[in-house]
Amino acid sequence: MTQISVRVDGAAYTDEVEPRTLLVHYLREQLGKVGTVVGCDTSNCGACTVHLDGEAVKSCTVLAVQADGSEVTTIEGIAQNGTLHPMQKAFHELHGLQCGYCTPGMIMASIDLVGDNPDPSEHEVREGIEGNLCRCTGYQNIVRAVQQAAAEMRGAQA
Amino acid sequence: MTAVEDRPVTAGPAKEVGQARKRKEDARLITGKTTWTDNMVLPGMLHLAVVRSPVAHAKLGTIDVEAARSAPNVVAVFTGRDLAEEQGSIPCAWPVTPEMVNPGHPSVAVDEVNHVGEAVAVIVARSKTAAQDAVELVDVDYDPLPVVLDMDRALADGAALTHDHVASNESFRWIFDAGEAGTGSSTDEAFANADVVVSRRFVQQRLIPAFMEPRSTVVQPQGDNYTMWSSTQVPHILRIMLAMTTGVPEHKLRVIAPDVGGGFGGKLQVTPEEVITLLVAKRLGKPVKWTETRSESLMSAHHGRDQIQYVDIAADREGNVLGLKVHILADMGAYLRLVTPGVPILGAFMFPAIYKFPAYRFDCQGVFTNKTPTDAYRGAGRPEATFAIERIMDELAVELDMDPLELRRRNWINAEEFPFTTVAGLEYDSGDYEQATQQALELLGYDELREEQRRRRESNDPVQLGIGFSTFTEMCGLAPSRVLGSLSYGAGGWEHASIRMLPTGKVEVITGSTPHGQGHETAWSQLVADELGVPFEDIEVLHGDTAISPRGLDTYGSRSLVVGGAAVVNASQKVVAKARTVAAHLLEASEDDLQFESGTFSVRGTPGSGVSIQEIALATFAAHNFPEGVEPSIDADATFDPVNFSFPHGTHICAMEVDTETGMVSIRKYACVDDVGKIVNPLIVEGQVHGGLAQGIAQALYEEAVYDEDGNLTTGTFVDYLVPSAADLPHFDTGNTVHEAPGNPIGAKGVGEAGCIASTPAVVNAALDAVRHLGVSDILMPLTPERVWRAIHRGGDGGDRATAGTNAYGGAQTETTAGVSTPESRLGGDR
Predict the structure, then answer these.
(1) How many domains does chain A have?
(2) How far is CA B780 from the centre of its chain?
(3) CA of B758 to nearest chain A CA: how many angstroms apart?
(4) Are residues A7 and A71 in the same domain?
(5) Do residues B226 and B219 touch, judged by C-beta distance below 8 A?
(6) Which CATH number characterizes residue A115's domain?
(7) CB contact under 8 A, B262 and A98
(8) Using CB atoms, which residue from A75, A93, A143 is nearest to B726?
(9) CB-based burial, B668-705: b 16+ in 10 Å, e otherwise
(10) What is the pLDDT confidence band of residue B354, given thresholds at 50, 70 and 90?
């Protein structure tokens, strides 16, 4: 077992983990952060996407020990004081989800995308989220939601 | 964009039905406050891992579990022999013929394994990792048997057997002959008298539903009671079937479907793992969890489609269709699961589609192979039928040198002919195919694209353009119980709802239809808000728990709104009727003098008087001042059983670019106009269409479950099984026409499967339209660049993706697709 210290959604944790423990399993099974989910075992689907020190990562592709000393943000940590993140709001307003299983990862990946590209075209959104699979929506409303949130996030920065 | 017919403006508050209400269920889904089954943790909970067969067909020899049993934190190991007495057989609820052969389906293999991925032992451990680690330690002796993979070969004389205890690889043969049924004339005469006969062999490749949430089941024993949480579409059916299979009495079993991450038919099942989890929890008296990996899911959760279709169409020279003959080989896989044999039968009535065929014959053989069982996948039988008819109509148009839309128009049912009884005996309810088509042509910008196609063809552009049609209909709203009975289905098709009026005026709606992404909580709230005149926000929709929602038949077949929503409306109307009696008492008026508007009863002609239904709920709770002889409750139940199916329809048009140098295909534009009857929530309807389109297009372009010659699934991860990403799909231009369904009080027809059923042939027809002048008349699905390139440059249909003798090869034996004769088509061939 190895000791790690991480901050997750603003709270500090120190835990013993097996060296082979994946970050997503640490989040779900040791911290109870079950908002982040597992959708595959080959890092294709992106359902487990979180932010590690501000960058989107697939948390099934990161060992928990690699997160030692880092700041992790999950879907459970992006609303501020009860106010939804613009990306959460846009997914709701534009019906960018159906079953909702891919949604946490899709939202976290999209926030990162807009961080890199504040005004993405439809094509850039489609390319930018291609590491996140959704089986329900056909993506059209997700693309619209990302663009709407990007506009709101640009406004918030201005 | 959604265009809806103009409706007269009426006074009064805005109706909820028809509004694009944002979904109630999103609040938890966008914040991670979800209740997926795998989130569940119970005190002392044990974890299961399943040892799965790496071979497709073998006798089981000794299974040495000692090393696994003594591994750290392993609590128990069970083999099929340990569970044989109590595991029964996975139920098949649809014995389509009295003679149908069902080989039996043990949850854990006992004597023989019949497909790769079949369970052979179960590890129970204190942690998931300990259970997974011990899987490696189980040593199984497999004594290999011949592997059956190709359906054509499986039916040949002397073929090896999928199961050595059954006489052949044929499970059943099911025939519908319109001439014999009295719904049409003789196909033999129709074909004998035809000017033109076109015969084709189409292949519906094997698909995997690939819901995003892997399956998971938790069972908690409490004395002799058991609670099961499962990622299922069908908690009610699951409870009944588990009781019948395992002997745990129905009233001692509660099944809960919490948040469920997609299904698409893939979770319409009673799975071996659900049976196993229940039996292990029962044996050990401890809570037990099983959650699959994605690889396990792709390998062992049921698959879909997988048919070989021999289709013959007869017509006169003017393009009037005269007859249709269909012979299907439907791959059951190794076992019959819940509705495996019923899937092709659901399609049987839909091959004639929207066309006025005078003669029709359908003949289907269910075939066993050593592959994962097939069962429902979005559309279940109807996409297969729609693909076949929409493809062969294009082939007939080519043969006749007619415009494919002109041929359709000449033969489709006209708007004034509804209700129309088809040659398959179905009574289509309503619609206007011309109107939907006109609207779709405009959405697409048809004339400009045809002009561009001409230019590209003339200039011999390496990128050619094609336009493909699919003018489809489907049968939805499963289903009238009597019809299901006549088809030997094991259950009815009704749906149940209850309305509970709470003392504070809030409303609980209990539905037997269990959502997993469809938005029932929102749409049902809209229905009830209008019926009861209470605010949308005051309504809570409860579902998916057999203790809360005691009666139901769950969610599949685009039935929820059409059947379940209808029950909700009827229950609401009963509440209003009961409340009227109380209102009359409170207002000291005759019931006949009361009007009910916007949630308030008032005496006609007496402004200012009135009592709201929410106030009546409190008065009913107190029951201090209540009419004599009336029980103090205004709650109500309703069960709705439709008399007929509903028949959504639509016109889908795909414009496709094909790069003739690389074989890459790219959807230039996709436009569709669907008539799904009354639209309760346009946001949800449009979302359902988008998602369906994505899956239908994915069948045409991307997805295929491929087995190698030993029966290994070679597309067993998301690396190989290509669920499309956002970058792989186009923008969709969608619209609606509205012809209400007469068969339910809402007027809705169902929308869950429309996009998936309609889109596949539109896409393939478009690709063929782009390259037909280069001598290509068919390309196997999915249209990979390799196949498209080969079809253009080497001829044939694009060829195989796998070794000879496997399922993907089976599809590839159609090098001579054009003009192939089928045994059923005496006249055979194009002439």
Answers:
(1) 2
(2) 23
(3) 15
(4) yes
(5) yes
(6) 1.10.150.120
(7) yes
(8) A143
(9) bbbbbbbbbbbbbbbbbbbbbbbbbbbbbbbbbbbbbb
(10) very high
For residue A20, the enclosing domain spans 2-77
Examine the domain organization and report whether A53 and A7 are in the same domain: yes
Q: Which residues of A touch B211 (CB under 8 A)?
A: 99, 101, 135
Enclosing H/E stretch for B810: helix B807-812
Nearest-by-Cβ selection for B30 from A92, A137, A141? A92
Q: Which of A41, A87, A98 to mutate to test the interface with B (most CBs of B within 10 A)?
A: A98
Which residue from B minimizes the CA distance to A144? B731
Q: A136, B212: Cβ pair inside 8 Å? A: yes
Same domain, A9 and A60: yes
* CA gap A133, A10 in Å, rounded: 28
How far apart CA B276 and CA B41 sit, in angstroms, is 19
Q: Is B26-33+494-640 in CATH node 3.30.70.270?
A: no
How far does the CA of residue A37 sit from the closest CA of chain B (Å)? 8
Cβ count within 10 A of residue B823: 9
β B46-52/B288-291 pair status: parallel
Same domain for A110 and A137?
yes
Last residue of a domain, one of A49, A77, A105: A77
Mean pLDDT of B299-327: 98
Q: Give the distance from residue A152's alpha carbon to the nearest chain B alpha carbon, in angstroms.
A: 17
Pick B690's closest partner by Cβ from A42, A44, A140: A140
Delimit the CATH 3.30.365.10 region(s) of chain B.
Answer: 26-33+494-640, 43-378
| Nearest C-alpha in B relative to A138 | B691
DSSP state for residue B107 in the 8-state scheme: S
Could you tell me if A96 and A66 lie in one domain? no
Residue A121 and residue A95 in one domain: yes
- Which residue, chain included where needed, has tokens 């991670």? B32
Domain end, chosen from A59, A77, A95, is at: A77
Give pLDDT tens digits for B134-163. 999 999 999 999 999 999 999 999 999 999
Q: Report whether B769 contacts B667 (CB < 8 A).
A: no
Statement to judge: residues A72 and A107 lie in one domain: no
Does the structure show a pLDDT above 50 at B91? yes
Contact yes or no for B111/B59 (Cβ under 8 A)? yes
Least Cα separation, residue B425 to chain A (angstroms): 33
Nearest chain A alpha carbon to B688: A137
Q: What's the pLDDT score for residue B809?
A: 47
Chain-chain contact of A38 with B723 (C-beta, under 8 angstroms):
no
Class of domain B43-378: alpha beta
Indicate the residue of B23, B128, B691 with minimum beta-carbon distance to A136. B691
What confidence tens digit (pLDDT) does each residue in B220-262 have? 999 999 999 999 999 999 999 999 999 999 999 999 999 999 9
8 Å CB contact of B262 and A95: no
Per residue in B177-200, pLDDT (tens digit) is 999 999 999 999 999 999 999 999
Our CA-based measurement puts residue A129 at a distance from the nearest CA of chain B, in whole angstroms, of 7
How large is the average pLDDT for residues B684-695? 98
Cα radius of gyration rounded to whole Å, chain A: 15
CB pairs under 8 A between A and B: 173
A99 and B213 in contact by Cβ < 8 A? yes
Q: How far apart are CA B175 and CA B297, in angstroms?
A: 34
Mind telling me how many Å the CA of A31 is from chain B's nearest CA?
Answer: 12
The mean pLDDT value for B343-347 works out to 96
Q: What is the ipTM of this complex?
A: 0.98
Whichever domain contains A10, its CATH number is 3.10.20.30
Residue pointed to by tokens 């893939």: B266
On whether both A48 and A10 belong to a single domain, the answer is yes
Other CB atoms closer than 10 Å to residue B661's CB: what's the count? Answer: 11
Instruction: Report the chain B residue with the minimal C-alpha distance to residue A98.
Output: B517
Q: Each residue of B466-515: pLDDT tens digit?
A: 999 999 999 998 889 999 999 999 999 999 999 999 999 999 999 999 99
